[in-house]
Amino acid sequence: MTRRPAALAIAVLTLLLCASAAVIIRQGHRILDLESELNPQAGPLPEGLSLDPFEVQDLSGKPHLIEFGKPGSKPTVLYVLRPGCIWCKRNSRNIALLASQAGGRYNFVGLSLAASGLDEFIRRNNIQFPVYVNIPSAVLARYRLGSTPETIVVSSTGRVMKSWSGAYIQDPIKSDVEKFFALHLPSVARLNQADEAR
Question: Among 2, 8, 20, 103, which is most buried by a count of CB atoms within 10 Å?
């Protein structure tokens, strides 16, 4: 007689565990779907994609319009970063060097996905080009801005010329960036030595 209630209790517990597991799996899928909507990671932007102007803010809250294709303008390098991103920190010397060496041929513009700690990040890493915040969510989604660091070269006609997701401290990104901009970036060993000295 005691076996029947025990078997019934085990069956009820098994059923509850299965239902609980199904709910957890469903919620996990919903979370992943939401993350992919907010932060789609489909790789670099395709070459030739046309970028529309969009409004951002400087650190004081003043609005600025990022626009491309003005007559007589230089190509623009959009550098997407996040102050807390370790790869952005590791790439900071290379982007600073790239901006100083290619700044005569390209306009450099930083787009930070977070405002917290940005002042300190800019100061510590000697970023000499303007960095803006409050990128509209529609722009983040349309241009798949979410991974950091990301570098997007936009032509003077407003079209994507080249796009890289990741730090350019190792090949193949490093050699591709060097080839595109026709310059030489420090090796990983030299960057590590400089980081240890800091």
Answer: 103
